[in-house]
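Worked problem 6 (solution included).
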Amino acid sequence: MKSRIVIPTVAPEAYQALMNLEKYISTTSLTPVHKELIKIRASQINGCAYCINMHTIDGRKHGITEQKIYLLNAWREADVYTEEEKAILALTEQVTLISNHVSDEVYQNAANLFDEKYLAEIILLIITINSWNRLAITTGMRAV
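Solution. The predicted structure is:
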């Protein structure tokens, strides 16, 4: 692949703004498992090998089982996920594929399971990982 732009070098202020959002996410009450499931699933949908690689490694460190990682792209047909995890995964998919919009059913299911603060943190993390996926894919970051 031909060399591509290095955003942190060319637009450091903008990159820092994204980093600040990531720093905020690290201070939230989201569990490490919830964080990594969101990051892995959004990255799978977006086809970001760099982020899939990073977050499956991180997920294992935070106790996500191999089985949950392997079944993640077919989570609806797997009984290894909690009700909360399923709600998070459904919301992650619909926010990531936003052109189809977020259904009232998926949103309300998550809203029924989580308080407003936690739900806001989930949504902000989904938005953040989608930004990172787009940055990594566009600039040609590769999984190693």
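Discussion: The chain has a mean pLDDT of 97.
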